[in-house]
Amino acid sequence: MINQKEYKYPEMLKEITAFVLVNIDTKREYRIVDKLFALKEVKEVHAVHGNVDIIVKVVLKRDLLSSDAVIIGEFVHNQVRRITGIVSTQTLLPSYSKTETNEGGEDNLLTK
C-alpha cells in the first residue's frame, strides 16, 4: 500500500477544466478567436478543420455553493454564446487528463 500512487480527487480541486467546441458563421473566425481569447477563463483557442470550427480550453473557478454544471453552463451561456457569429457550442469535460505541465508527467485522474 505504501507504493500505491495517490490520486487527486476532482471535487477537491479548486478549478474546473472544460473544452468547448464551437461552430461559427463563415468569415468571422479571426474576430471570434480574438474575442474568445480575451476572456480571462480561456487558456487556449484552436481553429480546426472538420465538423467543429474552434476548440476552446477553459479553466473555471469552482464554487462550493454551485455545481460544476451550473458554473460551466453559466460561463458558456453568458460569455461564449453571446459572441456574435457563434452558431452552436458543445462542452466536453475530461474524465482523465495527462499533460506535460503536470509535475513529473503525472496522470491527473478525474475518475477511476
Structure description:
It is a single chain. This protein is an alpha+beta fold and 112 residues long. The chain has a single domain (14-94), classed as Lrp/AsnC effector binding domain/regulation of amino acid metabolism (RAM) domain (Alpha-Beta Plaits, 2-Layer Sandwich), CATH 3.30.70. It is built from two helices and six strands; from the N terminus they run βαββαβββ. β2 (42-47) and β3 (54-61) form a beta hairpin. The relative contact order is 0.24.
Shape: globular
What's the helical proportion of residues?
Answer: 10-25%
Mean pLDDT: 85
The helix/strand order is EHEEHEEE
- The first-level CATH class name: Alpha Beta
Q: How many extended strands?
A: 6
Give the biggest beta sheet: 4 strands, antiparallel
- Poorly predicted runs: none
Identify the notable features of this structure and list them briefly:
about 110 residues; alpha+beta; Alpha-Beta Plaits; 4-stranded antiparallel beta sheet; 6 strands; about 20% helix
Quick take:
The chain is α+β, with helices and mostly antiparallel strands and 112 residues long.
Set out the fold topology.
Blueprint: E1 15-24, H1 29-37, E2 42-47, E3 54-61, H2 68-80, E4 86-92, E5 96-98, E6 107-109
Antiparallel strand pairs: 1-3, 1-4, 2-3, 5-6
